[in-house]
Amino acid sequence: MEETNPISGAKIFLAEKRSCTRSAVHQTFHTFGLGRYDDGHNEPFGHLRTLNDETLGPGMTITHTAKRQLEIIVIPVIGACECRTDSIHFKAEIGQVMHFPLEPGETVRISNKFLGHPISYLFIEIDSVCPVEREVIGFSLEEALNSLHQLKIRSGHDFSIGLYDWRHEGCLSFDQHDQQYFVYVIEGAFEVNDRLIQGRDGLALWGIKSLEYEALSDGAIILVIRLVP
Q1: Half-sphere exposure of 128 (CA within 13 A, CB side)
Q2: Residue 156: HSE in the Cβ half-sphere, 13 Å Cα cutoff
Q3: CA gap 70, 90 in Å, rounded
Q4: If 42 and its partner were Cys, which of 8, 33, 118, 123 is the partner (CB 3.0–4.6 Å)?
Q5: Torsion angle (degrees, nearest 10) of CA 59, 57, 31, 152
């Protein structure tokens, strides 16, 4: 479902349409095009290059190598993970976010130090538009229940996350209409600007005057990314 108005519009990235790459130790669902679904419909949105839902087996390590100047955001969903580059060594668990830059050709190693169970996390690559800090930021969804919690990472883009009970609503209004927003449902279901999006669905929005949403399940978690033009 897509609106073609070049000034304002929306595009849904359905979880069921994601491509998947997997090995014996690692599985990735790609919100943006890869493999047989790379038909031009699921291209990256603005500066948002990658939004992956990844699972890593017990005691395993995988690598990502940057093809361009990027900032990386890693959000643990199940368990805790560790990230290493030549300049950082971070650990994060649920309720924390890792944020750091990657230069072209630089590699980050992501590890699951648990020997008894897999972990899962969101791996986000976004174009750098300003100097990026190397940081681990904490947040509490329960303390900000039924409201968006802005992640205090030092980036040119804005990231907010919220945990909502059934039928609770939220609204963001904007003075500038040239902004781009990407909404991603981590758990549950939401209605966002009159569109139904469910677990692991994404919704790209541009040229909008407001962002209105309502949780359609208990324990629903939403991630909202504001991208600079």
Answers
A1: 19
A2: 17
A3: 17
A4: 33
A5: -40
What type of residue is 187?
E
Give ∠ CA 78-80-81 in degrees, rounded to 5.
115
Contact 19, 35 (CB under 8 A): yes
- Nearest by Cα to 164 from 189, 184, 181, 137: 189
Say yes or no to pLDDT of 131 above 80. Answer: yes
User: Do 131 and 24 have their domain in common?
Assistant: yes
Q: Tell me what percent of the chain is helix, strand and coil, each rounded to the nearest 5.
A: 5, 55, 45
Residue range of the domain that includes 152: 140-227
pLDDT of res. 41 = 65
DSSP 192-219: ETTEEEETT-EEEEES-SEEEEEE-STT
CATH number of the structural domain spanning residue 185: 2.60.120.10
Distances (CA, A) of 224 to 118, 160, 192: 26, 5, 11
Query: Would residue 2 count as lying in a domain?
Result: no
